[in-house]
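Batch job 17 of 40 flagged for manual review because the log was empty.
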Amino acid sequence: MRKFSISSFSFILSILCLNSLVAQNIPTKELAYKVFTLSEIKRPTSVKVLPAFNLLIVTDGSAGLNEPTLYAYTLDSIKFIKSFITVGEGSDQVNTPGAVQYFAGERVIRMFDVNMQRFCEIPIDAILKKGGQVPIARYLGRDSLTKKIRFNNFALKAPYVLPKGKEMIELNNLLNAPFQFLLKDEAGSKTDPSIFKVLSNTGTLKSEYGRLPQEIVEEVEKSAINRFAGVLDMNDRGDIAIYRSYFANFIALYNLKGKLLAYRYGTPDNDGPNDKQSLFIGETNWAYLSVVARMHKDQVYAINVHPKNGVGEDGKKRLNLYVFDKALKPQKRLVIRGGEISFDVNPETGCIYSLDNQQLYVSFQ
């Protein structure tokens, strides 16, 4: 009988351990859904879930002068409640309505008006109250005390107001430049650009912080493409910033002191390590799609076009919604309808509320 040596056992064990480290495709599930036609709205452009109030707020991006731009529905049944905040330059109006922002535990929603360079803050209690006008409680931002529109000087693009409304945060607009120029100053010396700008609630710059991982910088130093033009989102508590690139497979989490908490680059379609080979996806392609990402508790939700968006059995277009843990390790891929315009997640039920340019889809995990 042939002896089985300890060295042979160790070799086999090492092979088994090595195989266990090989990346595995993450679980994928195509979700069942219901379709809701929001007949009150011309063109839905953002959706926000407020589970604590059984509210769903949808923005109408095509509202005309003196027409309402925000619409409230019941979250559980998508029953229309009321419309509020009209378009214009008068009292309790907005000029260019943006996406609704909300943090858990607060009793206000906020919306940025890019033309007026300010946020409006809207009390939730007034939305819930039967009848009556919904007022703007206060304005925040650079031009919060004036109605002058500065079309040629948009200092703020897509900021967030942090909880309690004392500060604002925005992506550094230098990220829209080709990265090879971003890494050097006028004298040609290397720089270390920040990711975020922090401003007072009147729009005054207070500080800059957050840096890209060094290995990412080394990968793109010679790139002439604005690989890191992207978008900022916040988690549901307002204490973690989510940064995603449009043109690179890159997503990162930062705390409000600028500390890099987690990042992932390369395809999110397997649970393996970061993949430099799939960091870049071509000069004209998109990576992380939709104007939003979401983070509820320790789960991050983001739409990515890898693998290619597919078509369901009903012949309709589908999108890939990836769910990551707080270390940005992908946990699963949910195949959904809608979402290219906006989406949100109800953390209490797991339902996903997603928009295309015509309808609302409620998907069930």
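Reviewer: the log was empty due to a logging misconfiguration, but the result itself is present. The first helix runs from residue 6 to 20. Unflagging and moving on to job 18.
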